[in-house]
Amino acid sequence: MDKDKKVAIVTGANGGVGLEVTKGLLKNGFHVVMACRNLEKANNAKEQILTDLSSSKLEVIPIDLSDFESIKTFAQEFKSKFQRLDMLVNNAGVLFNKPIKNRANIEMQFATNHLGHFLLTSLLIELMPDLKSSRVVSLSSLAHKKSEIFFDDINCDSQTKWDAPYAQSKLACLIFADELQRKLTLAGKKIISVSAHPGGTDSGLFEHMPPIFMSILRYTFVPIFLHSTKNAAKPVLKAALDSNVKGGEYFGPTGLFEMKGPPGIAKRTKYSQREDVAARLWNISEELIGSTFKVGSL
Ligand SMILES: NC(=O)c1ccc[n+]([C@@H]2O[C@H](COP(=O)([O-])OP(=O)(O)OC[C@H]3O[C@@H](n4cnc5c(N)ncnc54)[C@H](OP(=O)(O)O)[C@@H]3O)[C@@H](O)[C@H]2O)c1
Prior knowledge:
The structure is a single chain. With 298 residues, the chain is an alpha/beta fold. The protein has a single domain, classed as Rossmann fold. 41% of the residues lie in helices and 12% in strands. The protein has an 8-stranded mixed sheet, sandwiched between helices. Strand 1, helix 1 and strand 2 form a beta-alpha-beta unit. Helix 3 packs parallel to helix 4 and helix 5 crosses helix 10. The longest helix has 23 residues. The protein is globular, with a radius of gyration of 18 Å. The two termini are 33 Å apart.
C-alpha cells in the first residue's frame, strides 16, 4: 500500500449512511477500511463502489461491534496491515423494538452503538498521527434529546418506552465524543473528536420495525420529512473533512426539524453537555469493556 495515503475506518460501511461516508472519503483520497459484520453485503458494496471509483483503495475487515472479542480481533488485523489511522468514523448502529442482550449480557444497542465504538477507539487511537486532520467521528441522533444515561439501569430493564435503549445509546455516543475531546485536549493532542447525526433517512436502521408501520411511514412521513442517505451522510462528511471543524463540535442537518437540509452545527440538550455525566459514563464504559481507555499518557 501507498504509505503516504491517509487511512480511514468506517464501521457499518456496507449500507445506509456508512456506505455514503465511505464513498465520500474515497473521493477525498483516503484508503478506506470497511469494518463490517455482514461480509456478503460488505463485499457487494465494495464491488459496487469500485465500479464507480475504480482507482480507490478499499478493503473489508470483519467486525461485530456487539462482541468485544471480535473488536479486539479486528484491531489486531488492522494493526497487522496498517501503521497509521487518520480517520475513525464510528457509524455502525442498531435500533431494536424489543429488549435483546449481547453475549456479555449487556443491552444490545448500548453494547453495539456505544461500548463497541468506545472499545474500538481505545484500541486504535495510538495509531493516529498527532494532527488536527486526524479525527474520531461519532454518530449520534436526534433521539439523544429524549434520554439521559440510566446509570442505575444501564440495560434499560426498568424503562417503559420501547426506544429508551436506543435513545440512551445515541446520547452515550455524543457524550463520549465530547469526553474524548476533553481528554485529548488535556493530553495536549491535536487529534480531534467530533460528532454528527444524519437527521432522518430511510435506511436499514428500521429493519426491525413492524413492516406495516414502515409501509405507512413510507407513503406519508418519509417523503416529506426525511432525506436521501447521500444527503444524510453530509453532516458526517463535514465533521470528518472540513478543515474549519473544531474538536467537540456536533453537526447535523439544519432544515426542517433538523431531519433534513444542509449540514451545520446541530442542537443538543444541556444534559448531553454535563461533564459529571460524561466522566461517569467513561468510568462505567471502562468497567463494562473490562479495560481502561488511555488517551496519551493520561
Ligand atoms: N437512519 C436514520 O434516520 C438515523 C437517524 C439518526 C441516527 N442514525 C445513525 O446513523 C448511523 C448509520 O445508520 P443507518 O441509518 O445508515 O442504518 P443502517 O443502514 O442500518 O446501517 C447501519 C450499519 O451498522 C451495521 N451494524 C449494525 N450492527 C452491527 C454490529 N454489531 N457490528 C458491526 N456493524 C453493525 C450494519 O451492518 P449489517 O448490515 O450487518 O446490519 C449497517 O452496515 C447509526 O449510528 C444510526 O444510529 C440514523
